[in-house]
Design goal:
By secondary structure, the chain is α/β, with parallel strands linked by helices. Helices cover about 45% and strands about 15% of the residues.
Length: about 210
């Protein structure tokens, strides 16, 4: 945001999947238009605060706020820029993972499969997903092999990675290793403990 303060004020600023603070959004109101796409509840609070501020009407016209907590920002962005088009299945699967809706058995392996293509350095897989041309079956099969390895790894090392604790009167999992996928951890723990632990009771504790 600081870098944008001196930018061309005739440009349109697009903000996706970022929960701006009030001062950050206010700093962008000098631009021609702001397209703000997000699914974090805090973003809605900030936007409503701007509407309730001085000159609210003129300010609100500058911000096109596209918001929904039920789906991910990538899903919302596709909807926004591709009106009247059906969201591709790949984007839907990524959205389900990002919002913790993993009942569809394709969700977790698809996410792992996509990551195996190193999308941060090679955007081709993301372009294929966006265009609806990605080989979903192949990506899911790759992801299933990764998921299978995760299960194997957890079975060997689970005792040293996490332990059951009491937190606020409820049972929870204290995770001793940063970077373990919470969905995989939950699935294994849930199976091991016969469904006694509520969904996503993940605590992080770091050891020096």
């Amino acid at each position: 945001v600081n870098k944008l303060k001196d930018g061309d004020k005739d440009e349109t600023i697009i903000v996706v999947d970022i929960s701006l603070r009030i001062d950050q959004l206010s700093a962008l109101l000098s631009y021609k238009k702001i397209i703000w796409i997000d699914h974090h509840i805090k973003s809605k609070e900030v936007y409503e605060n701007i509407l309730n501020s001085e000159n609210a009407l003129s300010k609100s016209r500058l911000v096109d706020f596209y918001f929904n907590t039920d789906v991910s920002a990538c899903y919302l962005a596709y909807q926004y820029f591709n009106k009247n088009k059906k969201v591709p299945v790949g984007i839907t699967l990524l959205s389900l993972y990002d919002t913790g809706k993993i009942d569809d058995k394709r969700v977790i392996p698809f996410n792992y499969g996509v990551k195996s293509f190193d999308p941060l350095n090679d955007e081709s897989i993301l372009n294929d997903i966006y265009n609806g041309s990605a080989n979903l079956k192949n990506i899911i099969e790759i992801g299933k092999r990764i998921e299978k390895y995760h299960h194997f790894f957890l079975e060997l090392n689970f005792g040293s990675m996490a332990n059951e604790v009491s937190f606020g009167g409820k049972s929870a999992i204290a995770v001793n290793i940063i970077g373990i996928d919470s969905f995989i951890l939950y699935k294994y723990w849930n199976k091991k403990k016969n469904n006694r632990i509520p969904r996503f009771p993940i605590l992080i504790q770091r050891f020096e």
